[in-house]
Amino acid sequence: MPIVINLDVVMAQRKMSLSELAEKVDLTLANLSILKTGKAKAVRFSTLEAICKALDCQPGDILEYR
């Protein structure tokens, strides 16, 4: 898929663990892990908004089209 998820990079820059982010955005660890590894087929805008708010970033920091 030409869309790459850079969630792990942004999390590392913010020094935030997967479990901490999951708690802040109210997602299960399993669902967030699927998104982080790029195995997700879709992401809700509300989820993307919550992740961006928790990480203080823009959607373009997380999603990349190659």
Could you characterize what this model shows?
This protein has 66 residues and is mostly helical. It has one domain: lambda repressor-like DNA-binding domains (434 Repressor (Amino-terminal Domain)). 59% of the residues lie in helices and 9% in strands. It contains five helices and two strands; from the N terminus they run βαααααβ. A two-stranded antiparallel sheet has the order 1-2. It starts with a strand and ends with a strand. The model has no long low-confidence stretch (mean pLDDT 94).
| Global mean pLDDT | 94
Helix content range of the residues, please?
55-70%
Determine the oligomeric state from the structure. Answer: single chain
How many domains, as an integer? 1
User: Quick one: overall form?
Assistant: globular
Radius of gyration: 11 Å
Structural class: mainly alpha
Unreliable spans are none
Biggest sheet descriptor: 2 strands, antiparallel
**Count of helix runs:** 5
Secondary-structure element order, as H and E?
Answer: EHHHHHE
CATH class: Mainly Alpha
Number of strands: 2
Q: Might you state the CATH topology name?
A: 434 Repressor (Amino-terminal Domain)
β-sheet strand percentage? 5-15%
* Cross-sheet strand order for the largest sheet: 1-2
The CATH homologous superfamily name equals: lambda repressor-like DNA-binding domains
What distance separates the N and C termini?
9 Å
Overall CATH architecture: Orthogonal Bundle
